[in-house]
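Technical annex, item 7. During the second reporting period the consortium partners agreed on a shared format for inverse folding records so that results from different sites could be compared directly. Each record opens with the tokenized structure and is followed by the designed sequence. A conforming record, contributed by the partner at site C, is shown below for reference.
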């Protein structure tokens, strides 16, 4: 089943350490919460919450990222891993995601797809657009 969704994300926690091996090389861990901008209600019911924890390794704003996400719905939750890359010039992150666990009506879910993260309307806000295929 093909699905698309968009979420408004906001940073709830950020820790940054500079590596000091070259200018502006940093490691960051972020926690974000999100709410849907656009999504289609599925078998698990209405959206409840979304939380992700991300790790970034950037030099001058560019570099790889990876992390984990849990999205909770009325009748189940889905857990996903993701990895991608952020372009410091455009400030756009792109990558892939894959589910690894589901609960409730989403038990046994398998899914994978792509994502794109762009700047949001305010500081520490982002827009996540994702699409992919799911199978229950």
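Designed sequence (site C submission):
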């Amino acid at each position: 089943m093909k699905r698309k969704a968009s979420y408004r994300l906001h940073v709830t926690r950020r820790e940054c350490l500079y590596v000091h091996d070259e200018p502006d090389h940093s490691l960051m861990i972020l926690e974000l919460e999100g709410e849907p901008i656009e999504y289609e209600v599925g078998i698990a019911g209405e959206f409840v919450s979304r939380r992700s924890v991300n790790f970034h390794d950037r030099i001058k704003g560019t570099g790889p990222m990876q992390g984990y996400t849990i999205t909770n719905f009325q009748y189940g939750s889905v857990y996903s891993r993701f990895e991608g890359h952020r372009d410091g010039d455009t400030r756009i992150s792109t990558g892939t995601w894959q589910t690894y666990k589901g609960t409730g009506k989403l038990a046994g879910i398998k899914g994978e797809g792509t994502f794109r993260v762009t700047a949001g309307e305010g500081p520490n806000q982002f827009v996540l657009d994702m699409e992919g295929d799911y199978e229950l």
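The radius of gyration is 15 Å. The beta strands are 2-18, 25-38, 47-59, 63-73, 76-87, 92-104, 110-119, 125-135. All partners now use this format for quarterly exchanges.
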